Structure formats: structure tokens, C-alpha cells
Amino acid sequence: KDSNGHSWRNTLGGFKTGAKLTYRRSAGLDHIVQQAAQAYKVDAALVHAVIHAESGFNPQAVSPKGASGLMQLMPATARRYGVQDIFDPKQNVGAGVRYLKDLLKMFDNNPRLALAAYNAGENSVLRFGGIPPYPETTEYVSKVLNLHTRYRKSS
Known about the structure:
The protein has helices spanning 27-40, 44-55, 75-80, 89-106, 111-120, 122-128, 135-154, and strands at 7-8, 15-17, 20-22, 61-62.
């Protein structure tokens, strides 16, 4: 497990730095993100921030709760968006960006609420009328927004 609580299904594409396995953005992934972000009109820097926070750019990441791939899609979400192979970066990112776009629409383009819903589920955000008071969710929203700022500055 890494500091985000993710377990890695395998180590394809990773390399070791000390004892921790790390992954990096690649030109191929950047292209996939750009295509999906343009198609669904979502900020590519936000997509990169979500991928960074969710999987650390590991396309084979599997969480203890069963979320998988770069954007850590739950199986039901993957099915909802027609994903055949949850570990295929193009399918995973495409579905993750569509889901993020739907959440942004649902929450009036409020990225804080959309990210909270991405992490805790849209029903939790609706039930609490805002960001649920779960430490994991509040930390996640803060982390992704900080990463978003970083990715926007570097693009």
C-alpha cells in the first residue's frame, strides 16, 4: 500500500525509488487525458490532478474498496460508462472524465463538490448538502485542488 491506501495489483510500468514504487506521467497518457478532456470539456489539469491523487499514475492500481485503474473507477461506475477493460488507460480515463463531467454538471460546476462526490459518492454530497465531514474526503478535495493548481502552472 502507498500513502493513499492503494494496493498495487502488479508493478508493470513502475520503477523503484528506495522502497516505494512510483509511476510517472507519460506522453501517451498526456495524449489520452487531452483527448478526453477536450471531448468532455473538462480541464486537463484537473484530470491529471485526479489521476495523481487516485492512482499515482499507476494504470494497474486497485484500492482495498475495489476501485481500479488510473482514475480508480468502481466497477459499477465503469459499467455505467461502458468500460470493457477497467485497466485500459484510454477506457478508464475516458469513463473517469465523463463521470467527473457529470459530477461537475450535477453540482453546478463547483469543483469542490464534484471532487467530494468523486471520492465519497454523489449521494453523500447530496445527503450532507456539501462536502461530507469524512476526513478522507476533506483531505482528498484539498489534495486534488492543490495538485490542480500545480498542474495548471506547469501546463
